Amino acid sequence: MARILAFLPILLAVLSVPALAAENREGELLKAVNEAREKRVLSPLLFDKRLAKAAALIARYTAKPGRDVDYCRLIEDAGIPCADIGVVSSAGTKAPIVDVAAGWFSDGRTQPTIATNRFGKAGVGVEKVDDPRFGPLEYWVLVLGNPPKPAARNWRHDVLREVNAFRARHGLQPLRLVPVLNEAAQRHADDMAYRDYFAHKTPNGTGPGDRAAAVGYRGLVLENLAAGMGSPAAAVEGWINSKTGHREAMLNRDIRDVGIGYRFLSLDRGKAVYTHYWAMSMGRRGNS
């Protein structure tokens, strides 16, 4: 789910107020799984480090007799939301790797999880146990999912490029990044993510102009927010297509400055579950 919000203050009011690559055997199993998927005309599963960590944790606990395994807790311990995740396993086997993979595709209990394009990534875990009765055994776990990932490292400059390209198409001058507005926007993105809300005003009643003033920026202040968009392009596109003021804010002829904030929350819980939180503060100083 994605949402966007725009803050367009009344001009007079604003001006008058301060405003890993897998280990060898684990990699062999993932390769065997993908070869079996290819025969069924399914897309290959891409290795994911966090899913591999979850699989390793589950394998470790599964190999310990008499212990109930809380899959969700272990998956979240690996930094992944326990939602839309698949887990298949083979407990205490001596079978060759290719047979472990084949068994998952032939077993009616695991086939619906592994023989589908619902998941795009996977991680493998294995725990080796020296059983006193049966000798060396292996506990294999495959965790499948589509874990969210943060926006690219240069997200701030990517947003700026998209916004300025949009302004250029309408004959407007580019905006410049201002460090204090970056700080104001980043604080708000962090606050929304960590305090579980999505709004221009904080639970304490602080608004866009207040945040800008707190970092020493006073004058005209506009703000666009987005949540749930996983990339700069998606966030800016949402603002461009918005019917509630975001487009107008970016095309404001009076603004000169911009600051951009972003927070990725992989284990997003609570009422506002968006994972990606964007804030963009735009403005013009009162004396410029």
Automatic annotation (TrEMBL):
InterPro entries linked: CAP_dom (IPR014044), CAP_sf (IPR035940)
Gene3D superfamilies per UniProt: CAP (3.40.33.10)
Top-rank lineage group of the source organism: Bacteria
Identification of the protein by name: SCP domain-containing protein
Keywords: Signal
Signal peptide (UniProt feature, chain positions): 1-21
Domain SCP: 160-262
Presence of the UniProt keyword Signal in the record: yes
